[in-house]
Amino acid sequence: MTSFLVRRVVGAIVILILISLITFYLFYAVPRDPARAFCGKICPPETLELVRHNLGMDKPLFVQYWLWLSAIFVGRDFTQFGPCPAPCLGYSFATQQPVFSAIVDRFPVTLSLTLGASVVILSFGILTGMLAAWKVGQPLDKIASSSSVIGASLQIYFVGPLVVFFLVDTLGLLPRPSYVPFTEDPLTWFVHLLIPWVVLSIIFTANYTRMTRSQMLEQLAEDYVRTARAKGMSGRSVFFRFAWRGAMIPIITIFGVDLATLLGGAIITEQTFTLHGIGELAVRAVQNTDLPMLLGVTVVGAAAIVILNIVVDVLYAFIDPRVRLN
């Protein structure tokens, strides 16, 4: 297991470097001068050249990338801003604020949204799918299957305003979505993020309901399940003790892949409910041609996805003993 984790960590570092490198070079392919975006609309040519020099943009592109990458580990001194301690992701062209500090301030919002939606997806999606497989062909199975088809066709930007209109504005059952730090008031944090969690998880929950139902029915047809039944084990014991473990392996695998999609959905959800998370930083970075902020958000988002995928891989060993032996 240790060698496996070491290989995954090394691979993750290589992936993050490649992602940052590709993002860095694609940014400069855009026909817009980042130095002018930093300097402003009214910027004399001599001031523009000074800005390019202070930001290191008068150096070759590979040198600029190396300076940015090395600053993450050893920091960097900027002529205009002064020293930037590690991990340094530079300063925003738009706000002149440290990129790392801005991301740290916004990251709890996106993390809370993503993790909360993940709990809803895995809890309700897997539970509903298992119940549908347990009652296959019965009304519960038909209701779950039909609801999953409807849920998979809905979109965040359509469902979000409708849910807020009915549950907040009309019925007053829940407060308007906002973010309150978990450390300040856990209950308020939970209640104010409940609507965004549900809206973000609708599509994914529907997909995981159908996936779980399909995998459970496939496992129930396996030889080891028939053997367990032949030995006299009850259907309930076979279903909940053996079949579900085999069904969870592909589901967890797909969930690891879906984490990137879930993070993208979190960005859309932030825009829908005006939550000030990393998604807002990413959108503004693209609009303002803010290279340091765009790189910082991309690398942090990729790092979060890679780390969560490593956690998912470790979970295999606790669900399937065959993975542990291999």
Automatic annotation (TrEMBL):
- Xref: Gene3D superfamilies: MetI-like (1.10.3720.10)
User: What topology in the membrane does the UniProt record assign?
Assistant: Multi-pass membrane protein
Listed GO biological process terms: transmembrane transport
Task: Classify the main location.
Answer: membrane
InterPro entries with a match to the protein in the record: BPD_transp_1_N, MetI-like, MetI-like_sf
Q: Does the keyword ATP-binding apply?
A: no
Q: Which Pfam families match?
A: BPD_transp_1 (PF00528), BPD_transp_1_N (PF19300)
Provide the alphabetized UniProt keywords.
Answer: Cell membrane, Membrane, Transmembrane, Transmembrane helix, Transport
Q: ABC transmembrane type-1 domain: from which residue to which, for each copy?
A: 107-316
Q: Which ranges does the record mark as transmembrane?
A: 9-28, 115-137, 149-168, 188-208, 242-268, 293-319
The record ties this protein, via SUPFAM superfamilies, to: MetI-like
Gene Ontology cellular component? plasma membrane
Intracellular or extracellular location(s)? Cell membrane
**Entry similarity comment:** Belongs to the binding-protein-dependent transport system permease family.
Its name, as the record gives it, is ABC transporter permease
Q: Which organism is it from?
A: Planotetraspora silvatica
